[in-house]
Specification:
Order of helices and strands: HHHHHHHHEEHHHHHHHHHHHHHH
Number of strands: 2
Number of domains: 1
Radius of gyration: 23 Å
Strand order of the largest sheet: 1-2
Largest sheet: 2 strands, antiparallel
Helix content: over 70%
Shape: globular
Length: about 500
């Protein structure tokens, strides 16, 4: 089947009332979460995960994916109107978007953010449609050693690009792998790290783990903060359609941001946040008037908003073709696939073409829904911004508890979620990142299986990872990144010791 026929198959699966309802629910909730500062897509997806257990896999995935790319849209609204990024990837949009709003140009800023997001999302989806099938056919040649080395390299790249300490990121990744090993050994059937607790024999559930780490901890962090009154733009927003001059100034930034975002989205650790920062830096660098940036330049809104939406589409390429998630949200979606008995990877397109192209078709439809949602409902989003946090956060706690309990009717899993909530709170308070831990938690069992299968193929010889070209390349990249991250720490320590000796 060629790509056109496959896309028709995807649209045939998605253009049904029940599928469209799930798609609309995902993008609507995603936009809402993007608008509300302090509540990210990961926590929201975790809260809603239990409600997708009984749904068909396609419906569950398109709703959760809709929350992800919907949040990219919604984050710009808060950034422009309140100068607070609703989503991390919209941090850069605050710089020029809020200045445009202060100058009475909130309408064009919101308009170009919505249209730029739509164009970039579509370009990203075209890239996903064209790149994924050939990449999957190449990946069919991969065996367990290649998968093990690529997962090691991907996890190391994400740790290497961590915002904080590399050592702390490595510690979190190691802890995530240990958590993923809890339960019964897949080969021997013996229990591991259960400490005699029968509820842990099936392992730690993805839902209580992620809901606690991101949802509950978010509530704790925000309760601790002094919630100051937010300065919301109260003047009437008009002129949502950008002028011809606005379009002239924005078209090339949108195009460059879309391409750059897609490429960075496919890389481990790249993602929407890095893409938005880099696209803004590129536009400022090549601009004839760089002094306008930060003062209300429309290019400063168009480029990062295009980049983060295109990166959201690009992130699906390694997940769906190689089974390797490039960021924490894709790691979460990988867990959702596994829960529904499906393993993304090279055989995913051939075994489940209706699911693969159904997901892509749903994203095309979701992009159109988001464009129709964002422009007419600006007034509604402004009212949502006025919801007091003292009402919002108890509701989040309630949904988390109901969601976790509804999975297995287990009080133990509620307690587990609260434990991870406290852990997540302490990690964020003391600057330990949760992203490497979640990625390692999801990839840990796959990493273990690939390692065991590889050693069975080689009669226990580790040389198999260095005698096969792709596997050797992945392992070399892993070692170079690890050495490159550790050497500066040793050099710094050595210099501090030398200074102490001199004094």
């Amino acid at each position: 089947m060629d790509i056109i026929q496959c896309l028709f198959l995807g649209f045939y699966e998605i253009l049904r009332i029940d599928a469209l309802i799930y798609c609309f629910a995902g993008v609507f909730i995603g936009t809402l979460i993007g608008v509300l500062p302090g509540i990210g897509p990961v926590g929201t997806m975790a809260i809603l995960l239990p409600f997708t257990y009984k749904a068909p896999p396609l419906f569950a995935i398109i709703m959760l994916a809709g929350i992800y790319y919907g949040a990219m849209y919604g984050g710009s609204t808060t950034a422009i109107l309140v100068n607070i990024p609703g989503e991390a990837a919209s941090v850069v949009t605050c710089l020029d978007g809020y200045q445009m709003a202060r100058k009475g140009r909130a309408g064009p800023a919101l308009g170009i953010a919505a249209f730029g997001s739509f164009i970039a999302g579509t370009i990203g989806l075209i890239g996903l449609t064209l790149v994924a099938p050939p990449l999957a056919s190449i990946a069919l040649r991969f065996g367990p050693p290649e998968y093990f080395s690529l997962m090691c390299a991907g996890m190391t790249v994400l740790i290497y690009l961590a915002a904080g300490s590399i050592i702390r990121a490595l510690m979190m990744a190691a802890f995530g792998i240990i958590l993923g090993c809890i339960g019964l050994d897949p080969e021997t059937g013996s229990s591991r790290f259960t400490f005699g607790i029968h509820e842990l024999l099936d392992g730690v559930g993805l839902a209580p783990f992620v809901m606690g780490l991101f949802g509950i901890s978010e509530v704790f962090i925000n309760i601790e903060k002094s919630l100051k009154d937010r300065s919301i733009l109260t003047s009437k927003i008009k002129g949502l359609l950008p002028s011809l001059q606005d379009w002239k100034d924005s078209m090339m930034p949108i195009t460059r941001g879309s391409v750059l975002g897609f490429l960075l989205g496919t890389l481990p650790g790249g993602g929407a946040l890095v893409a938005s920062f880099l696209s803004y830096a590129v536009e400022k660098k090549i601009s004839k008037h760089p002094d306008k940036f930060g003062q209300g330049a429309i290019e400063g809104v168009a480029a990062p908003e295009s980049a983060n939406n295109s990166a959201a589409a690009g992130a699906f390429v390694p997940l769906l073709t190689l089974g390797i998630p490039p960021n924490v949200i894709m790691a979460f979606l990988l867990g959702v696939f596994v829960i529904h008995g499906i393993t993304p990877g090279p055989l995913f397109i051939s075994k489940h073409p209706e699911l693969f192209f159904g997901i892509i078709a749903s994203m095309y439809v979701g992009n159109i829904m988001l464009l129709l949602l964002n422009l007419p409902l600006i007034g509604l989003w402004v009212q949502v911004l006025k919801v007091p946090y003292k009402i919002l956060f108890p509701l989040i706690l309630l949904f988390c508890i109901i969601g976790v309990y509804s999975i297995n009717n287990s009080i133990f899993e509620i307690a587990l979620m609260l434990i991870f909530g406290i852990l997540g709170y302490l990690m964020r308070k003391y600057k330990y990142e949760g992203t490497p831990m979640v990625l390692a938690f999801v990839l840990g069992p796959l990493l273990e299986n690939s390692l065991r299968q590889s050693l069975l193929l080689s009669d226990g010889k580790f040389s198999i990872f260095f005698t096969r070209p792709i596997a050797a390349t992945g392992m070399i990249i892993t070692f170079l990144l690890l050495i490159g991250s550790i050497i500066p720490a040793f050099r710094k320590k050595r210099e501090s010791v030398a200074m102490e000796e001199e004094t």
